[in-house]
Specification:
alpha+beta; Yope Regulator, Chain: A; 6-stranded antiparallel sheet; two-stranded antiparallel sheet
Length: 172
């Protein structure tokens, strides 16, 4: 870890830019994931990290939101309204299982007119290696809890997916 000397003479962890911070979060999460899940695809999108296992509409996300002073960690369902809601309802039916694995801080909610998310937020502190490691471990814990459940539940009903595509629903 890189340190710098503060004006008071004490050593403080080096501040990271958003992109290096998110790269460190990704690396920390990947290191903590069991091999049995496989390796997720990952991408940096503006100021967020997204990881998914084949369908980018269903992805895990870390997003430092400076405007609100929060760090969001979540599972995002960003497809057509019917698709997102169908998956959210299936996850809601397993809320006790998810709560037991993740704790009570996670909320499942409609986020926009067509998207849903299972998420929690943390106070946004200095973007440094320590926060990246903490966020990476939390992201890995979410993936370990949610991904096997998602795989057991299977994809959203084809009718929900097709209905949304037919109407061209892809809005925020």
């Amino acid at each position: 870890m890189v340190s710098r000397v503060s004006p008071s003479g004490t050593s403080a962890p080096a501040r990271l830019g958003t992109r290096p911070f998110l790269e460190d979060v990704r690396d920390s999460a990947l290191a903590a994931l069991p091999a049995s899940l496989g390796t997720p695809h990952s991408r940096l999108v503006f100021t967020s990290l997204q990881m998914h296992f084949g369908d980018p509409r269903l992805h895990y996300e870390v997003w430092p939101v400076r405007k609100t002073g929060r760090l969001e960690l979540g599972l995002h369902l960003e497809g057509p309204q019917e698709w997102s809601r169908a998956l959210a309802m299936r996850l809601a039916a397993h809320a006790d299982e998810l709560r037991a694995a993740l704790g009570p801080a996670y909320e499942l909610e409609d986020w926009t007119a067509s998207w849903c998310r299972l998420h929690r937020t943390l106070p946004l502190r200095r973007l440094d290696a320590a926060l990246a490691a903490e966020a990476g471990e939390s992201l890995a814990a979410l993936i370990v809890a949610a991904e096997p459940l998602i795989r057991r539940l299977g994809p959203a009903p084809a009718s929900a997916d097709a209905a949304g595509r037919r109407r061209g629903r892809r809005r925020r």
